[in-house]
Amino acid sequence: MSVASSGGRLGRRQFLSGAAAGLVAGAAGPAAAQQGSGPLQVPVWTREQGEGIASPAYGVPSAFEKSVIRKPRTPPKFPTAASTGTPLQHLHGIITPAGLHYERHHAGVPAIDPEQHRLVIHGLVERPLILTMNDIARFPSVSRLWFLECSGNTPQWTGGSAKWTVQETHGLISCSEWTGVRLSTLLDEVGLKPEARWVLAEGADGAAMTRSIPLDVVLDEALVAYAQNGEHLRPEQGYPLRLVLPGIEGNMSIKWLRRLKVGDQPFQSREETSKYTDLMPDGTARQFTFVMETKSVITSPSGGHQLREKGFYEIRGLAWSGRGRIRSVDVSTDGGATWRPAELQEPVLSRCLTRFRVPWTWDGGPALLQSRAVDETGYVQPSRQQLVDVRGVNSQYHFNGIQTWKVAPSGEVTNAA
Amino acid sequence: MSVASSGGRLGRRQFLSGAAAGLVAGAAGPAAAQQGSGPLQVPVWTREQGEGIASPAYGVPSAFEKSVIRKPRTPPKFPTAASTGTPLQHLHGIITPAGLHYERHHAGVPAIDPEQHRLVIHGLVERPLILTMNDIARFPSVSRLWFLECSGNTPQWTGGSAKWTVQETHGLISCSEWTGVRLSTLLDEVGLKPEARWVLAEGADGAAMTRSIPLDVVLDEALVAYAQNGEHLRPEQGYPLRLVLPGIEGNMSIKWLRRLKVGDQPFQSREETSKYTDLMPDGTARQFTFVMETKSVITSPSGGHQLREKGFYEIRGLAWSGRGRIRSVDVSTDGGATWRPAELQEPVLSRCLTRFRVPWTWDGGPALLQSRAVDETGYVQPSRQQLVDVRGVNSQYHFNGIQTWKVAPSGEVTNAA
């Protein structure tokens, strides 16, 4: 934005007299200091030394941020087979801190010793192989900024609670820089047999989570990842080794990866038959619905936020597509009657979150905030009704409809999906 | 890399018999299970449920990663006026986890209540202003992936200890996604007077750290940042508000930012006169040496690493320039006699870390590993000698010479700068 265009954005605010400036500059007397930490006194944290270095040696957030945590939508009956959402309403940019990455576990988080961990590759291969973590670290590596989204994210097929925040409606998505070895590099090491068509990936957790992956997905950009946002994977994200399949429903990016078996057809595991299929209106089930389609959501203002006064706000949100880059995002403040193009934050990367922003002046009246993303293939994010017309309301997965946030004259923001 | 080109990279490894495959697939009997967690038994973490969700609700690294921490090079006499380095030897990609971002404090880390924190903007402005954190969050925001480097990083003007790791030679650099308000947006809000030329930035810490910033740097892309890698700033990084000046020595990105005073000349604060100036051979001092020049370092293999066997290794490192994008990085394994171009990991961003990689087959003999970066302006990273010929050895700051790691036939890697 140009410097000239943004004057007086917040309207009247507390202006400063020369005398006050003197105080702020550090000339406050003992009396002022006694009064504590108002804007015009010297606060205690300026009058005293702070914490020394490396305390702790691995840093943690400020105590004032203790409400910014992962949370389940409802208290789970089985905490080892449940999920937690990322607090998108508190986040900025596109990177998700590893400590706030969403979770979905089928038998809890195992505590795996990397020295003992092995990856086995067998089945329709020329040279079955067992690899240690040291072996895997030796291979050529790549890094990619990719989102991961649970196929169960946004359970609004039949609408949701007005009280839901964006953490509850859309929190099962996160974005990280992943580093590891291309799965194609490892399969080349063992040599695929001509009849190879599918790969079974198995986790070392108590669920021995297994999914079948078609060879075209495997040979795309699939990573066997050992690092996330610079450091080694977090336990909840598959430490010490996980699959990362860009743009594909999260449960297939098998965590705690211990085995890859190459076959000539899908293995029909529990997690791709009784689970992770989409029940259609006619009673049939869509199976192997891998790709997470184009989707977006406004994260600010969003459910649970409270606008304190009329005037300027920046509408901020996230958009993503399992098929490539986001081409454009339009934003509406009147429930879809009119739309304005949002600004996309560079760099816009394939199968990565894209941050969008658009200026908005709230007049104090009711408003319905929506965002609609288009990806580089031309796919347009559908309305909830367009989606339900095709898929019905029996499905638990792959909801990518347009989200609506309702702003009341009181400034209260609620879920209107 | 193409699938066809990478066969048999690691040479002979443990191959798998059909029977063993059966065991790995989960058919291990009780006897095998009793034996614990060898590669061919079912490990305890597969036989039991793991931790439930959100424990903790803000995630932490695996207990097996407890050696990956920030560390000072030597135990500091004054822990509140000291620095810690990022463990680059353990990191991948370009993002630095906030918990491992390098530290440099002048009076420790203050614990600031964001509700009480204020930013004052005064001096040669039309409308002096006091802003709350809520006010600042309302302004149009931008996100940028930028490195921060301490001007004192790499203290090898007179060589360093052979025992130094890359955490000790180069650890005072980190890279984050920063989100906040352009400083130019805030200065437009208050209105600069015609004679405005410099801005004093002041921290709310016990040192009231102050630096003078020329207007061209301020009006470039300087951010008043409240977020880092998605979440709000960490306390050690200036919570709740800091300046981020891309490509500029780290101490000027004032943390715990409480005041901006606009003037017509530099303010000659302690930190730009007695400190953070470069003493030249003729006894004069270079002042206002802002830009961090083009630099690179190999992070693997690097000091303290131990190569276990001959054969294939991927040489990995980081390159950066305070003047823009990295154009190319060359790598030598023979002390600079011959050079090979490294592959740069996309996206290559301006004033951001760039990860480079090059394949290497170690023949078991002695080797001298070096990297040399070139930025988009054509600037070539100098050798240590070229740098010393111009600057002498009195300076404590702005060392960007080529780093040499010595590989012994034993596989031990040491600092040979």
Secondary-structure blueprint:
2 copies of one chain form a homodimer.
Chain A lengths: L17 H10 L2 H5 L9 H4 L35 E2 L18 E2 L13 E6 L5 E4 H6 L3 E8 L16 H5 L2 E10 H8 L7 E6 L6 E5 H4 L4 E6 L2 E2 L9 E3 L12 E7 L14 E2 L5 E2 L8 E6 L10 E10 L5 E7 L7 E2 L1 E2 L9 E9 L4 E9 L8 H8 L12 E4 L5 E3 L2
Parallel strand pairs in A: 3-12
Antiparallel strand pairs in A: 1-2, 3-4, 5-6, 6-9, 7-8, 7-12, 9-10, 9-11, 13-14, 15-16, 16-20, 17-18, 17-21, 19-20, 21-22, 22-23
Short note summarizing the structure:
The structure is a homodimer of 417-residue chains. Helix content of chain A is 12%, strand content 28%.
Notes on the structure:
Two copies of one chain form a homodimer. With 417 residues, chain A is α+β, with helices and mostly antiparallel strands. In chain A, a hairpin with a 5-residue loop joins strand 13 and strand 14. The radius of gyration of chain A is 25 Å and the shape is globular. The first copy, chain A, contains eight helices and 23 strands. The first copy, chain A, has two domains: 179 residues, Oxidoreductase, molybdopterin-binding domain (Sulfite Oxidase, Chain A, domain 2, Alpha-Beta Complex); 121 residues, Immunoglobulin-like. The relative contact order of chain A is 0.13. In chain A, the strands form six sheets. Chain A has a five-stranded mixed sheet. In chain A, strands 5, 6, 9, 10 and 11 form a five-stranded antiparallel sheet that branches. Chain A has a five-stranded antiparallel sheet with strand order 18-17-21-22-23, with no helix packed on it. Chains A and B meet through helix 1, helix 3, strand 1, strand 3 and strand 4 of A and helix 1, helix 3, strand 1, strand 3 and strand 4 of B. Chains A, B: Its cofactor is Mo-molybdopterin. Chains A, B: It comes from Azorhizobium caulinodans (strain ATCC 43989 / DSM 5975 / JCM 20966 / LMG 6465 / NBRC 14845 / NCIMB 13405 / ORS 571). Chains A, B: One of its GO terms (molecular function) is molybdenum ion binding. Chains A, B: This is Sulfite oxidase and related enzymes. Chains A, B: Pfam families: Mo-co_dimer (PF03404), Oxidored_molyb (PF00174).
